[in-house]
Every structure is written in structure tokens, then in C-alpha cells.
Design a protein that fits this description.
The chain has 301 residues and is mainly α. 72% of the residues lie in helices and 0% in strands. The chain has twelve helices and no strands.
Length: 301
């Protein structure tokens, strides 16, 4: 019986010296990449925040022409613009109108889009594919083409200068996109959940409302955020279909600060800052599910 001895070649002094050097080089490279990434992120953040900071800065100037010489604002900053907007304009009527229209569009639009997306995702009825393509086709028409026929329809229904009419118009824009979005999200929910609901004696509506919708909360958050922002910031439809200045939304109310011969840009800036508050609050409510909903519908399974 023989024994074989395997000898390991000894590590030379040169190899022992190269190991710390490579570790140092890797450490320096990792630190350099981290510094470069942080520098890029800082620059990108400054670029993104600069317009907001500039708008807030201009809103503190008391004169309407302060935007022409912003350096002089430092010595005369004041909140008088905010006080004037809140006390001497139709700001609160604009806020009421914007919230009614935006929340109405969000609730009705998301409900219709969710039922449509779920039906196409789960049911194979004749023409279900064509239905989704028709919804997609409606997004091809520009607003300028749609205003005239929509105005005629709302006139016949006596919905001109009414919140309901504007909500229905916005739903015609939000529902097709949200239906596609939610259909992709419903495809990621296993069919076994629907079958389990039927085994437990739930109706199709019961399965949808009690089992599927709670699981689709991130997708619903994205659809709701899109519908809210679409209705909150839209100008063309609101300025055409709403005739009373007390029923203007924020986007249309801002135009009242601009006339043919004058532009009160300091008041516009202050109003724009105040407008951002409800949007930021709504974003804060849905931001937990927003990223998940944006990414979950991209793949199936």
C-alpha cells in the first residue's frame, strides 16, 4: 500500500504582494464608482428640483414683473401673493371643482376599467381581443378632433357646464389606458384564486370584489393616480365645457391671471404652488403601491 503526497507549490513573494494590490485596486474602483453614482444622482436631483424651487422663489416676489429681475426678490420676500390668492380669488371654488372632477373621474374610471380589464383577462367571449384594440384605437385621436363631437353630445344631453359631463369626458380618456394597464395586472394573478372563490360559493362579482380587487391594489393605485392627474391638470376640455368661472378647475383658473395686456405672474406662481399641495397629498397616499403596480403588470406568471 503506497501513499502519495501532494505538495502545494509555495506562494512566492511576488504573488503575495499582488493580492493586496488587487484588493486595493478593487476597493478604489468600488469607491470611485460609488462617488460617480452619487454625483450623477445629486445632479439629476438638482435638475429635477430646480423648477419647483424656482417657482416657489418667484411666488414670494410682491410685484408681477419680479421674474424679470429675480435677484431683487431676496430683499422683499413676502407671502402676500398667497394671501391674495386665498382671499380675493375663486381659489376655493376652483379647488372644489378640481376635487369633484378629479375624484369622480378616478372612482368611475377605475371601476369601469377594472371590470373591463378583469373581463378580458378571465373571460373568452366573442370579440374580446377586438374590444381591447378598439380601446387602444380611441387613444389615437387628438383632443382638437374630439372637442367638437363631444361638445355636441354634451349639448344634447344638457351636460354642458356640469361636473358630470366633464367627468364622463375625462373617463373616455382614462378608461382605455387604465383597462389595458389593469388587464396586464390581472393576468399576473393566478386563475386558481378564481376557482377557489367558486368552490367557496362566491359569484363572479363576489370573486372579483372580495378576492381579486384586494390583490390588485397596486395596479388600482397606478390607475387611480393616472386618472386623478389626467383630470386635475387637463385644460382644453375644461375650458371648453365649463362656462361658469366658479366651476373652473385649477388648470383653467390659472388662465384668469393672464389677459391680453397684462400677466400677473406672481399670483400665477403662488397659485401653482398651492395647486401642488392636493396632488402631492394624493401621491403620498398611493406611493406605497405605485412602483409595485407600475412593474407588476409587465410580465405574466
Amino acid at each position: 500500500m503506497t501513499t502519495t503526497t501532494v505538495t502545494t507549490p509555495a506562494t512566492g513573494p511576488a504573488e503575495q504582494a499582488d493580492a493586496p494590490r488587487s484588493a486595493v485596486r478593487r476597493g478604489r474602483r468600488g469607491t470611485g464608482n460609488a462617488l460617480a453614482s452619487h454625483a450623477v444622482l445629486i445632479v439629476a436631483s438638482l435638475i429635477a428640483l430646480f423648477p419647483i424651487a424656482w417657482l416657489v422663489f418667484l411666488s414670494l416676489g410682491p410685484d408681477k414683473d419680479d421674474y424679470l429681475h429675480p435677484g431683487e426678490i431676496w430683499g422683499k420676500m413676502t407671502f402676500d401673493n398667497y394671501a391674495f390668492v386665498l382671499q380675493h380669488t375663486n381659489f376655493w371654488e376652483w379647488l372644489k371643482s378640481s376635487l369633484i372632477v378629479s375624484l369622480g373621474t378616478t372612482v368611475i374610471g377605475v371601476l369601469v376599467a377594472a371590470t373591463t380589464g378583469y373581463a378580458v383577462s378571465r373571460m373568452r367571449f366573442p370579440g374580446y381581443r377586438k374590444l381591447m384594440w378598439v380601446l387602444l384605437l380611441t387613444q389615437m385621436f387628438p383632443i382638437a378632433v374630439l372637442i367638437v363631437p363631444m361638445y355636441q353630445i354634451l349639448s344634447e344631453l344638457r351636460l354642458i357646464d356640469s361636473y358630470l359631463g366633464l367627468v364622463l369626458v375625462y373617463c373616455s380618456t382614462a378608461v382605455p389606458y387604465c383597462a389595458w394597464l389593469l388587464k396586464g395586472y390581472f393576468d399576473t394573478i393566478p386563475f386558481e384564486i378564481d376557482e377557489a372563490g367558486r368552490v367557496d360559493g362566491l359569484s363572479p362579482f363576489g370573486t372579483f370584489f372580495r378576492l381579486i380587487l384586494p390583490l390588485a391594489r397596486p395596479g388600482l393605485a397606478v390607475a387611480g393616480f393616472y386618472s386623478f392627474i389626467t383630470a386635475f391638470g387637463e385644460v382644453a376640455f375644461a375650458s371648453t365645457f365649463m362656462l361658469s368661472d366658479t366651476k373652473y378647475t385649477f388648470a383653467v383658473g390659472l388662465q384668469s391671471f393672464v389677459s391680453e395686456h397684462d400677466a400677473q405672474r406672481n399670483l400665477m406662481a403662488a397659485t401653482a404652488v398651492l395647486i401642488a399641495i392636493p396632488v402631492s397629498a394624493f401621491f403620498y397616499l398611493v406611493q406605497k403601491n405605485l412602483v409595485t403596480g407600475l412593474t407588476a403588470g409587465g410580465t405574466k406568471g
